[in-house]
Amino acid sequence: MSVEFSNAYQEILLDNLMAIIKQNFVFQTQLKLAEETSKAKIELQAKYDELIKTKSNVYDTTHEEKTRLQGALNDVMKKKLGLEKQLQDKDVKIISLKEYIAKLETVVPQSKLKKINPEKIIDEKPEKQTAPDLFAIKANDGSSF
User: Fold this and answer.
1) pLDDT band for position 22 (50/70/90)?
2) Which domain holds residue 105?
3) Which of 28, 51, 104, 108 suits 11 as a labelling partner, its CA being 20 to 30 A distant?
4) d(Cα 26, Cα 22) in Å, to the nearest integer?
5) What is the pLDDT of residue 19?
6) If you average pLDDT over every residue of the chain, what do you get?
């Protein structure tokens, strides 16, 4: 081999080596950036999965609470309707009993009504009270001469 060939060979070898080293550096830099991006992506995916779980738990809890409240509301509404029906039945019964009492009071004599219920006296003929005579002389009251 000649010296010129050897020098050219070494120069080309050195140029190729430098090109390979440059490519290696670029490749390693790209790998490092890709790793950092991959780590960031994995962290974001983990946070996303955690948020999805939390959101799912919130929806489940909310749904359970809604179901519980709806059930309680339904129970209260059933009780309310039952109580309203009982109240209507009692009102109808009270009205019918009042009508029955009124009929009985018209049939029963006044003296018997006074014995049964002294507070409720039905006066068919209210007595007319007269005003006392202020100028009338009373006997034996000690005020006359």
Assistant:
1) very high
2) 3-116
3) 28
4) 6
5) 96
6) 86
Residues 104 and 91: their CA atoms lie apart, in Å, by: 20
**What is the rounded distance in angstroms from the CA atom of residue 113 to the CA atom of residue 105?**
7
What is d(CA 42, CA 35) in angstroms, rounded to the nearest whole number? 10
Residue 109 token pair: 């004599």
| pTM given for the model | 0.45
The DSSP-derived string for 7-60 is HHHHHHHHHHHHHHHHHHHHHHHHHHHHHHHHHHHHHHHHHHHHHHHHHHHHHH
Could you tell me how far CA 82 lies from the centroid of its own chain?
Answer: 22
Mean pLDDT, residues 71-100 taken together:
97
Q: For residue 143, is it within any domain?
A: no
**For residue 61, what are its two tokens?**
């809890």
Domains of the chain: total: 1
